[in-house]
């Protein structure tokens, strides 16, 4: 069965950096686009970033563009999110989500991890 | 970007009743690329419906989706105790993918 397991969350000061990881199993990781979606405490869902199955294309929400970088290692079945210049408004649970398609950022999300909490606070 | 507005914000119903949730888009959602998710407290969202009306794997047939253009509906024909949760719609017809603010279905 499909499993997505995030790690790397924690408490960081404003302006700091954090790297999230998502270990994938149960499907052919290298053939699907992958996404990060976040949810601030008590709030709704916000799409953050997408990476194409082969890593050749990446897209970001305007709110994180220039600060966050999505990447993947298909040899390790792992997705990453490098978060720099963190702000208090980046505080959220970050979910790794499998896209339904290989190459399109416009996708629904058929499997989700349990999420990892990032808290940006001084 | 396409803004999705869900209504009502909260739906108070009893087990066995029918639930009708609405999702309205600020512009037409191309090819009915509209999905619905269920989220329970402390859990990740779970895909229920994609393509406006196709049920995801393992989703019971009491869940159904309909609509096109700017107006979409999720119907739960007879509420089971495990169906009380927050429901989100999401459009993936244009970039960026966006979500509605959610409808909470609570026990009356």
Q: Which quaternary structure do these chains form?
A: heterodimer
The largest chain-to-chain contact, stated as pair and per-chain residue counts, equals: A-B, 20 and 23 residues
Largest sheet of chain B: 7 strands, mixed
> Which residue ranges of chain A are poorly predicted, with pLDDT under 50 across at least 5 consecutive positions?
none
Number of helical segments of chain A?
Answer: 0
Indicate the mean pLDDT of chain A.
Answer: 97
Helix-strand pattern of chain B, N to C? EEEEEEEEEEE
N-to-C CA distance of chain B: 35 Å
The number of distinct β-strands of chain A equals 11
Primary descriptors:
heterodimer; A: mainly beta; 4-stranded antiparallel sheet; globular; B: 7-stranded mixed sheet; 11 strands
General description of the model:
Chain A has strands at residues 3-7, 10-12, 18-25, 34-39, 45-51, 58-60, 68-73, 78-83, 92-99, 109-112, 116-120. Chain A has 122 residues and is mostly beta strands. In chain A, a hairpin with a 6-residue loop joins β5 and β6 (58-60). Chain B is globular, with a radius of gyration of 13 Å. In chain B, 35% of the residues are buried. Chain B contains no helices and eleven strands. Chain B has strands spanning 4-7, 10-13, 19-25, 34-39, 46-50, 54-55, 63-68, 71-76, 86-91, 98-99, 103-107. In chain B, β5 and β6 (54-55) form a beta hairpin.
Structure summary:
The complex is a heterodimer of chains A (122) and B (108). With 122 residues, chain A is mostly beta strands. Chain A has no helices and eleven strands.
How is the topology of this model organized?
The complex is a heterodimer of chains A (122) and B (108).
Chain A: E1 3-7, E2 10-12, E3 18-25, E4 34-39, E5 45-51, E6 58-60, E7 68-73, E8 78-83, E9 92-99, E10 109-112, E11 116-120
Parallel strand pairs in A: 2-11
Antiparallel strand pairs in A: 1-3, 3-8, 4-5, 4-9, 5-6, 7-8, 9-10, 9-11
Chain B: E1 4-7, E2 10-13, E3 19-25, E4 34-39, E5 46-50, E6 54-55, E7 63-68, E8 71-76, E9 86-91, E10 98-99, E11 103-107
Parallel strand pairs in B: 2-11
Antiparallel strand pairs in B: 1-3, 3-8, 4-5, 4-9, 5-6, 7-8, 9-10, 9-11
């Amino acid at each position: 069965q499909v499993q997505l397991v995030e790690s790397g969350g924690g408490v960081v000061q404003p302006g700091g950096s954090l790297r999230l990881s998502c270990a994938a199993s149960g499907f052919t990781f290298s053939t699907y686009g992958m996404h990060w979606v976040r949810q601030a405490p008590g709030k709704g869902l916000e799409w953050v970033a997408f990476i194409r199955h082969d890593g050749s294309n990446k897209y970001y929400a305007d709110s994180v563009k220039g600060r966050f970088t999505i990447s993947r290692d298909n040899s390790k079945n792992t997705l990453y999110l490098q978060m720099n210049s963190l702000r208090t408004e980046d505080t959220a649970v970050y979910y790794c989500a499998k896209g339904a398609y290989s190459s399109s950022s416009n996708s629904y999300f058929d499997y989700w991890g349990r999420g990892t909490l990032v808290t940006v606070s001084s | 970007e396409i803004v999705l507005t869900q209504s009502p914000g909260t739906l108070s119903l009893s087990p066995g009743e029918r639930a009708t949730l609405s999702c309205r888009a600020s512009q037409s959602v191309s090819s009915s690329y509209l999905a619905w998710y269920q989220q329970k407290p402390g859990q990740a969202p779970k895909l229920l419906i994609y393509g406006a009306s196709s049920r995801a794997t393992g989703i019971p047939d009491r869940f159904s989706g309909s609509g096109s253009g700017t107006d979409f509906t999720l119907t739960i024909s007879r509420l089971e105790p495990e169906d009380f949760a927050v429901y989100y719609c999401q459009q993936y017809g244009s970039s960026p993918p966006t979500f509605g603010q959610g409808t909470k279905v609570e026990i009356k």
